From TrEMBL:
Its main location: membrane. The keyword Transmembrane helix applies. The keyword Transmembrane applies. The chain crosses the membrane at residues 38-61, 82-109, 129-150, 162-187, 207-230, 251-272, 322-343, 371-390, 396-420, 441-461, 473-490. This is Amino acid transporter. Keywords: Cell membrane, Membrane, Transmembrane, Transmembrane helix, Transport. It is a multi-pass membrane protein. It comes from Pseudobutyrivibrio xylanivorans.
Amino acid sequence: MKDEKKLGLMSLILMIFTSVYGFNNIPRSYYLMGYAAIPWFVIAGILFFVPFAFMVAEFGSAFKDETGGMYSWMCKSVGPKYAFIGTFMWYTSYVLWMVNVSSGIWVPVSNLIFGEDCTSGWSFFGSEFLSGSRLLGLMAVVFFAFITYFDSKGVDKISKVTSIGGTAVLTINIMVVVGSILMIIARGGQLQQPFEGLESLKTPLNVAYQGSPIMLLSFIVYALFAYGGIEAVGGLVDKTENPKKNFPKGIVIAAMVIVVGYASLIMLVGSFTNYSEILGNDSITLGNVSYVIMSNFAAEIGKVFGASVATQVSLAHGFARVYALIMLLALMGAMFTLVYSPLKQIIEGTPKELWPGKMGELAEDGMPKNAMWIQCAIVSIMVLMVSFGGDTMQQFFVILTAMVNVGMTVPYMFISFAFPKFKKLNGIDRSFVVFKSQTSANFWGYIVTFTLFFANVFAIIQPALDGDFKTTFWSLSGPVVFGLAAWIIYTRYEKKIERGEVEAEAMEETAAQAE
C-alpha cells in the first residue's frame, strides 16, 4: 500500500469546520428565536461543545494509534458492548442526516440556476408522476451513489473536497461580517432589528417561543445539534501530520472559532434583518429562511448605499445565486466527509465477524467499500420512501428532522459518560491533557451528559404538549429502535462466540483493557 498524504493543521481545521459548522443554523436560529438564540448557543458551547471538544482531543491523542475512533475510545474505557451500542446509534443518526441532505441539496441547486427555489415544479419530460418530490427523490439517489463512488477512492480526494467546502463557508461568513459592519457604520450604529439588551436576549421574537418555558428549553437541542459532528473526525488522528501536536490543536482552534462565530453572526443578522418586516409572514419556513435572509442582506447593502429599488432586487437575486453556490459546496464538503468517516470508525474498530455478510470486510486500499455501498442502498431506500410518500411527505420531513436532532445528540452521552472511566486508565499516552484531575474529569463528564439528557427530554416532550404526539413518538423511538438494533447485533455476535463460530480474542482483549 502506498503512503497516504497526511492532513496538515489547516486541512484538519477546515475538515472539522466543514463537518461541524453549519451556516444555515444561524438564519434558522434567528428565525426561531431572534437575539434570544444567542444565550442558548453560548450555554450549549460552555456546557457541551468546548468541554466535549477537549474530551475528544484527549481521547484522540491518547488512542492515536487506534483506527476505530470513538468505538475504540469507549471500548477501552468501558467495554465493547457499551461502545458498539453508542457508536451504532451515532452512526445511524448520520444515515438520517444523509437522507435529509441528499433530498434537500437540490434547493441550492435550484437557487443557483434560477435565483429561487422552484423544485416543486420540476418534472421528468413533463411527466406528472415523476415530478416534484418524486423526481427529487430519484435525483437524490443518483447524487448519493455519485458521492459514494467518489468517497470509495480514498481520503486524499475527500480532504480536497472538504477543504473547498470549508473555504466556501469561511467566505460566506466573511462576507456577512464585513457587509454587516459596513451597514452598521453607514446607519450610524443603528440595527434593523433594535437590540434592547437583556430584554432582547431573554425574549424570543418568534411568538411561538414566547411564554413557553418548555419550548425555550427545547431550543437547546437545536444549539447542541449545531455543534454536532466533531467526533466524526476523531478517527482521522492517524491521518494527521504530527498528530500529538496538530490534532488536539486543530480541535481546540476550531471549537473556539465555532462558538464565537455562532453567537456573533446571530447578532449581525439582526443588523440587517427586521424580524416582523422580513420574517413575519406565513410563507417563511425553516427550508427557505436562509435564502430569504441572505437575499435581504444583499438588498440592504444596496439600499444603505443609495441603490435604486430595481438594483436592490437585482442584488438580492444575484446574491441568492452566490449563496446557493457556497451552500452547495459546503453541503457537498460535509457529505463527502461524513459518508466516509463514520463508517470508517465503526467498521475498522469492530471485529469483522460482528457484521452480517461482507459488510465488515475492507478493500485492499483499506476502505470499507462493501459497507459504503450497503449504506448507499439503505439511504436510497429511505429517500425513495420519503419522496414517494404522497401527502404525508412534508410531515415526515418534520419528523425526520426531529429524529436527526435527537438521534445525533443522544449518542454523545455515551462518549461523555465514558470519559471519567477513561481518565482512570493506566499505561496510555497522556501527552495532551486538559482535565488535570479525576475530579475535573468526573465533573465535566457528567455535566455534559446531563446537559444532553435534559435537552433531549425537553425536545421530545415539547411537541406532545402542543398536541403533536406523532413527532414525540418518532423522536423517542429513533434512539430506542437504533439502540435495540445495536444490542441485538452485538448479542448475536456474543452467541456466535459462545457457539465457537468465531474467535473471542478481539473481544477478550478489549474487555481486559477496559478492566
